[in-house]
User: Fold this.
Amino acid sequence: MAGRVEGKVALITGGASGIGRGCAERLAQEGATVVVTDLQDAKGAEVVEAIVAAGGKADYLHHDVTSEQAWIDVIAAIKARHGRLDTLVNNAGIGISASVLEMSLADFQRQTAINLDGVFLGVKHSIPLIREGKRGGSIVNMSSVAGLKGSAILAGYCATKGGVRLFTKSVAMECANAKDGIRVNSVHPGIIETPIWDSIMGTGEPGDNARPARPVVLDAMTAEGVPLGVKGYPEDIANGVLWLASDESRYVTGAELVIDGGLTIK
Assistant:
């Protein structure tokens, strides 16, 4: 099936690498005009260049998701360039691992600002433009399996992702009550080969290219905890996001799409 999101305009935050890039490329392949936003301007430009070279439609905007003014500016730019917004993928996020006794308040607040405040601001400022289109839309908030179960050294991260989970359900109910046709769902990735693991493992900054330690550690984690026995890749998450962005999921809202190889079964 081709053209599953043909004619739609989709905004993907944190789209310069990892899951965000996978979502941008997949939605573009299926006909969406994709707006990629990030702080990594060079990498964001590379994503757009690759999408356009493959025959897709995309552009890039510099975007700090923790800034309300930045959200106002990004939405205004999308309205000026494309005249509409149909899909928001709130994907931007960071992961900081530390004992709750050792994590600094600054790190806790920075992680919350990106992972949770950024989702709130995205929803707040995107819904009015989606509503202007008068044909409904889809908001996909990127949570995690860490939003479903606790982890000893990821208390701060779990707090943000658990917050995204229930925030999503509440906004889904608000949109349903408004009868605006906007569906709001969360996606919960498991062990996925992305750069965020470098920051979680303390081996690099978010967005860095794969480091030698990452695949080894992820493979070990996968062997120990994932029933299917294999780790996931950005395209596995992107396929789920594509379904939620498409009209195929027209009757789905407030749901949790878990894509984790069975990690959370037990």
